[in-house]
Amino acid sequence: MEWLELKPEGLFCAPGAFYIDPLQPVAHAVITHGHSDHARPGHDLVTATPETLAIMRLRMGEDRAGQSQQALGYGDVISIGEVRLWLAPAGHVLGSAQVVMEYRGQRAVVSGDYKRALDPTCEPFEVVPCDLFVTEATFGLPVFRLPDPAHEIAKLLHDVCLFPERTHVVGCYALGKCQRLIALLRDGGYHEPLWLHGALLPMCNLYESFGIPLGDLRSATAAEKGEMRGGIVLAPPSAIADRWARRLPDPVVCLASGWMHVRQRAKAHGVELPVVISDHADWDALLETCQATGAKEIWVTHGREDALIYALGKMQIRGRALRLLGYEEEDEQAEQGASA
Amino acid sequence: MIEFATLLERLAFTPSRNMKLALLKEYFSMAPDPDRGYALAAMAGSLSFAAAKPAMLRALAMERIDPELFTWSYDYVGDLAETVALIWRRETPDQDTPAAPGLAEVVHTLERLPKTDVPDVVREWLDACDASSRYALLKLITGSLRVGASARLAKTALAELASVAADDIEEVWHGLEAPYGPLFAWIEGKGPKPDAKDAPVFRPPMLAQPLENVDLTAFNPGEWRAEWKWDGIRVQLVSTPQGERVYTRTAEDIGKAFPDVLATMQDLGSRVVLDGELLVVQGGIVAPFAELQQRLNRKSPTASMLRDMPAGIRLYDILFEDGEDLRSLPFDIRRQRLESWFSRLNPPRMALSELIAFQNFDDLAKLRENARSEGIEGLMLKKADSPYVPGRPRGPWWKWKREPLTVDAIVMYAQRGHGKRSSFYSDYTFGLWRTVDGERELVPIGKAYSGFTDEELKFLDKWVRDHTTKRFGPVREVAHGLVLEIAFDAAQYSKRHKSGVALRFPRVARIRRDKPVEDADTLEAFIRAFL
C-alpha cells in the first residue's frame, strides 16, 4: 500500500499529509490513544477521540496537547484531502481508537494498541474489514495465552481475605490499567474503599467525568497507616517496592501486567502476587483479529513481530515488520514520565 | 492438582515465612486426603519421579505447536516445563473440560504405568489442566519439582493446625510414610498419635541461648559444666532396630552424605540416640569448617573425599540407650551414662566432648579468649542438673561465643533486601584495599545484611541512594566513601572472591562515619592477622 509510508517521524499518510502516533512534533497528527509513547506533545493539529484529547490535555497540559484539536467521535467520518478517515474502538483504554483510512478504493486500518478481553472502562474492539491491517505484537508469542481477568481478580481477592492484617499494593499504570482494575474489582464484588497513589487519582477523576463509575476512591498518600490495613492500594509500578510503599502497613507487593504470566518476569520484579491482566491482545487474539479483518497484508508496528509474521505466513497472510522504535513494551518507563 | 498448583505458585513468590505458614495451613485444612499427604511428601523432598524426560515433553508439545514457534517461545521463557505449560492448547477447546487429575491420582497412576503409556496419559492430563496446574504436573513428573517451603515449615504449619509443638510432629515424622494418613488423622483429632515404635525417628534437640546481658557473678561455678563449642554442625545419631540415621538439628537426614558415620553406627550395633558435633577430623585434628562444607555440599561423597576428609563426631550427650529415654535425667547423670557407653564400646570416629575444669568464670573467660584453634567457636555452659529439653529454653544452657573478629571495610555495592526490606538497600558488599603495581584498588571480601539497627538501616539506605555511581540491574555500585566495621567469626581462603578470602558469618558491627576511607584495612594486613 504505497500511500502509507514509514518516515523517521512515524507512519505517514501521504495523500492526507498526516501522521499516525508520530514520534516527533508534526503539522497534523492522528492519535490512537493517550499513552505517552503514542500521544506525544508539540503537534500543530491533533485529531483524536474526545476522550483521548482530554487525556492528552490532562497529561501534558493544554498548551502542549496540540495547538488545535479536532475531536472525532467513533464512526464520525471526515475527509482529509482525498482520504476518508474515521475512528473505531480499539478496546485498549478509554478513548483508544483504530484509525480507518480509505483512499482510491483501498482501506487501511491502524489499530494502535488493542485488546479483545473484557474491559468495563472502554468501548470494545470493533473488527473493521480492510486490505491492510497495522497491528501491535506486544504479546506475539504463543506462550502468551492470558487467563481470564475475572480469574485473576478472584485470585487477588482471595489473597486479601487470607491475609486480612496485610495491605495489598497493586502496581498498575496510571492510564487504563488502573481504572480497569478498579472496575474489575467492583465487578468482582469488592466495594471497599480503594487507596490510590497520588499519581493515579487525576486520571480516575477523568474517567469518572466520562461516565465510568469507579466507586469509593481515596488518597493513600493522605491516609493514616492503620486505615489501609487489610485494604487494597493501587500505585504506579515504580512505587510499589520503593520508598513510597513504606507508608503501607505490611504490604503484599502485587503487579498487574501481562508480563506476570512468565515466572521469571514476575520474579525479576520482586512481586509476591502476580496479577496477569493485560491491556494488550494476547497471542490468540492477535491471530484471530488479523484473520478477522480479512486483510491480505499485515504490518507489525512493535513487539515480538518475528513469531507473529511467521504464524501469519502459515495462514497465507503477508506480514511486514515496521520495527517502530519508540513504542515501548508495556513497562515502567512508558508511564513514568507522564504520571509522575 | 489445581489447589496444589496454586499453593506452589504462591509459595514460589512469597519470601515471608509467616505468609508461607498461612498458605500451608490453608492448603492442609482445605485439600483432601490423600492429595495433601503427597503435597507434604513433595515438601519433604520424598516425592521424586522420573516418569518423563525433557524429550518427551518436547515431543508432546510438537504435536500441538509449530516447532519454530516453540523454539522462539522456549528461548523467551527459558524453562521447558513452563514453556509447554503455557503454550499447551486443548485440541477441542469448545468441549467441556474433563476434570483435572488430583495429585494422588497422578502419583498412583505413574507408580504403575508402563513407560510406553506415559505420553498418552500425560497428554490427557495436560488437556484437563489449566496453565498453572500443567506447570506443577510437568515439574512433578520430570522430577524437578521445587516447593518454596521446607519440610520443617510444613511441619510447623501442621503443628499450628493441631495446636501441638512442631517438635511433637518431628518425634513421629520419620516413622511415617506418604501420604501420611495417620498423621493427618491425629492432627485433626480423628486418630491417636502415631507410634514411632522402633523407627529411627528424630528427637528435637536442646539448644542454648547466647550468653548476653547475663550476670555471671550470680552463677555458682560448682553448679555449671563447661565444654568447648565446636565449629561444625550439630547432629543427632540415631540407631534403632529399624535402622540408623544421621540428622541435622533441623531434622534433615544427611546419612547419604556421611556413609562413614552411618557405617560406624551399624558396626557398633548399639541402640542409642546421641547428640554431637559433626566435624572433619584429620589425624585427630579438627579441620577448618570449609572442609566440612565441601562434604555437606555433596549428596554423596567421592572415595577421595572419604579418605581425605573423614567425618568425626564430638559427643555431647546421650538421649536414649537401649530404648530407655534418658532425657529427663540431669546432665551429670546423662554424662556418666555417655562416658560409660563410650568406654564400653570405644567407638571409632567418635570422641567425647571434653569437660573443661574451672574454678571460677574469670578463669573460664581467659580460656575462652585464648582458644583460637581451628574448630572452636567458644564455650558452652550447661547446668549440672539440667534435663534435656527440646527447643531453646532460657537458663539451663548458654553458648558463650568468642568475641567476634572485626575488620574495617569499605562499602562497594548494595542490593535491596527481600520481603519487609524490599524497599531498602540492605545487602552490602564490602572490600579492602590492595596494592597492585603501585596502584591502590578495592577488592570485595564479603557481603553483610545484618547487624544494624532500623535507624542505621535507614541511614545506610539513604547513603546508598545518594552515592550511587552505577546500576547493574538490582545492584548499585556506590562511591568509595563509607567504612563499615564488619564483625565475623572466622576467615578462610576461598576461590569464590577475587580477593581470595572469605568471612564466616559477617555482619555490620558499626558504621564508621568518622573513619576516612583511606584508613580502612588492607587485604595484606587482613591476611596477616587472620589467616
UniProtKB/TrEMBL annotation, chain A:
<protein>
    <submittedName>
        <fullName>Exonuclease</fullName>
    </submittedName>
</protein>
<dbReference type="InterPro" id="IPR036866">
    <property type="entry name" value="RibonucZ/Hydroxyglut_hydro"/>
</dbReference>
<dbReference type="InterPro" id="IPR026360">
    <property type="entry name" value="Xnuc_lig_assoc"/>
</dbReference>
<dbReference type="Pfam" id="PF00753">
    <property type="entry name" value="Lactamase_B"/>
</dbReference>
<keyword id="KW-0378">Hydrolase</keyword>
<keyword id="KW-0269">Exonuclease</keyword>
<keyword id="KW-0540">Nuclease</keyword>
<feature type="domain" description="Metallo-beta-lactamase">
    <location>
        <begin position="24"/>
        <end position="125"/>
    </location>
</feature>
<dbReference type="InterPro" id="IPR001279">
    <property type="entry name" value="Metallo-B-lactamas"/>
</dbReference>
<dbReference type="GO" id="GO:0004527">
    <property type="term" value="F:exonuclease activity"/>
</dbReference>
<dbReference type="InterPro" id="IPR050698">
    <property type="entry name" value="MBL"/>
</dbReference>
UniProtKB/TrEMBL annotation, chain B:
<keyword id="KW-0233">DNA recombination</keyword>
<dbReference type="InterPro" id="IPR012308">
    <property type="entry name" value="DNA_ligase_ATP-dep_N"/>
</dbReference>
<keyword id="KW-0436">Ligase</keyword>
<keyword id="KW-0547">Nucleotide-binding</keyword>
<keyword id="KW-0460">Magnesium</keyword>
<keyword id="KW-0067">ATP-binding</keyword>
<keyword id="KW-0131">Cell cycle</keyword>
<keyword id="KW-0479">Metal-binding</keyword>
<dbReference type="Pfam" id="PF04679">
    <property type="entry name" value="DNA_ligase_A_C"/>
</dbReference>
<protein>
    <recommendedName>
        <fullName>DNA ligase (ATP)</fullName>
        <ecNumber>6.5.1.1</ecNumber>
    </recommendedName>
</protein>
<dbReference type="InterPro" id="IPR026333">
    <property type="entry name" value="ATP_dep_DNA_lig_pp_1105_fam"/>
</dbReference>
<dbReference type="InterPro" id="IPR012340">
    <property type="entry name" value="NA-bd_OB-fold"/>
</dbReference>
<dbReference type="InterPro" id="IPR050191">
    <property type="entry name" value="ATP-dep_DNA_ligase"/>
</dbReference>
<dbReference type="Pfam" id="PF04675">
    <property type="entry name" value="DNA_ligase_A_N"/>
</dbReference>
<keyword id="KW-0234">DNA repair</keyword>
<dbReference type="InterPro" id="IPR036599">
    <property type="entry name" value="DNA_ligase_N_sf"/>
</dbReference>
<dbReference type="InterPro" id="IPR016059">
    <property type="entry name" value="DNA_ligase_ATP-dep_CS"/>
</dbReference>
<keyword id="KW-0227">DNA damage</keyword>
<feature type="domain" description="ATP-dependent DNA ligase family profile">
    <location>
        <begin position="304"/>
        <end position="434"/>
    </location>
</feature>
<dbReference type="InterPro" id="IPR012310">
    <property type="entry name" value="DNA_ligase_ATP-dep_cent"/>
</dbReference>
<keyword id="KW-0132">Cell division</keyword>
<dbReference type="Pfam" id="PF01068">
    <property type="entry name" value="DNA_ligase_A_M"/>
</dbReference>
